[in-house]
Specification:
Elements: E1 6-9, H1 18-21, E2 27-36, E3 40-46, E4 52-56, E5 60-62
Antiparallel strand pairs: 1-2, 1-5, 2-3, 3-4
InterPro entries: Tsr0524-like
Protein name: DUF2862 domain-containing protein
Organism: Halotia branconii CENA392
């Protein structure tokens, strides 16, 4: 996955706040990456409402 690609949130691995739950099924654009726990990498996604949050790679999928 690369910066600028469109992705869809397909699942949420952990318990999250209500605003993030609302992102399930939404499409956004990869804005960047975030190092998690020093070994894993998360993907920062920007949505149409100008909000952004990070997801694990298995929580999103590329949209063509």
């Amino acid at each position: 996955m690369e910066i600028g690609q469109k992705v869809k949130v397909v699942r949420l691995r952990d318990r999250v706040s209500a605003p993030i739950v609302k992102k399930l099924g939404q499409v956004g654009i990869i804005q960047g990456y975030k190092v998690i726990d020093g070994s894993s990498v998360g993907v920062v996604v920007l949505f149409d409402d100008n909000s952004s949050t990070w997801f694990f790679e298995d929580e999103i999928k590329l949209v063509s």
